[in-house]
Amino acid sequence: NAEEERRDEPDETDVEVEKRFFPIVAGVAGQVLKKIFCTISKKC
């Protein structure tokens, strides 16, 4: 049981980290895509 609990804890923390960082990564990716689209289409 102790080993199973240890296995569960890292999974939970990984999910929490993903929930925290995903919006930031998505926002940065969105800004980068806007800049790329802007330079390609030259519509700013």
UniProtKB/TrEMBL annotation:
It holds the Pfam family Antimicrobial_1. Keywords: Amphibian defense peptide, Antibiotic, Antimicrobial, Disulfide bond, Secreted. It is found in: Secreted. One of its GO terms (biological process) is defense response to other organism. Residues 21-44 form the Frog antimicrobial peptide brevinin-1 type domain. InterPro entries: Antimicrobial_frog_1 (IPR012520). This is Brevinin-1Pg.
